[in-house]
């Protein structure tokens, strides 16, 4: 029985050593996401991004970063679907590109038989 237990523990230790658990410092996560340091800290403190303390450093495990990114991507897709297609319409004072290219003279009336 002890040899089976020792064998199981040895197999488990080998699996744990084979899997490299990666963790990133906050500065690295900010660089990967291209956001400010304070944004990453806000995500950590709000509980949206999991972390582990290593002394005085916050470390974000690779799995937590992947979980956060997958959730953010899903939320983005949901927001896009709820918003519908993006339509850009000019405001009351804005001119469209076509208006800018058109001459600014007053429109002429169309009369039958008259040449414009």
Characterize the structure shown.
- The structure is a single chain.
- The protein has 116 residues and is mostly helical.
- It has a domain at 22-86: Arc Repressor Mutant, subunit A (Orthogonal Bundle).
- Helix content is 53%, strand content 9%.
- It is built from 5 helices and 3 strands, in the order αβααββαα.
- It has helices at residues 2-18, 26-33, 37-46, 62-83, 97-101; strands spanning 23-25, 52-54, 57-61.
- α2 packs across α3 (37-46).
- The longest helix is centred in the middle third of the chain and has 22 residues, at 62-83.
- The protein is elongated, with a radius of gyration of 30 Å.
- The model has no long low-confidence stretch (mean pLDDT 76).
- GO terms for molecular function: DNA binding.
- Residues 81-100 are annotated as: Disordered.
- InterPro entries: HTH_17, SinI_DNA-bd.
- This is DNA binding domain-containing protein, excisionase family.
């Amino acid at each position: 029985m002890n040899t089976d237990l020792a064998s199981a523990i040895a197999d488990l230790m080998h699996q744990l050593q084979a899997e490299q658990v990666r963790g990133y410092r906050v500065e690295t996560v900010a660089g990967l996401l291209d956001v400010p340091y304070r944004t990453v800290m806000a995500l950590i403190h709000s509980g949206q991004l999991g972390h582990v303390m290593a002394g005085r450093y916050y470390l974000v495990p690779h799995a937590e970063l992947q979980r956060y990114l997958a959730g953010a991507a899903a939320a983005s897709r949901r927001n896009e679907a709820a918003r519908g297609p993006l339509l850009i319409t000019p405001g009351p004072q804005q001119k469209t590109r076509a208006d800018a290219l058109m001459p600014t003279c007053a429109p002429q009336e169309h009369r039958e038989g008259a040449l414009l």
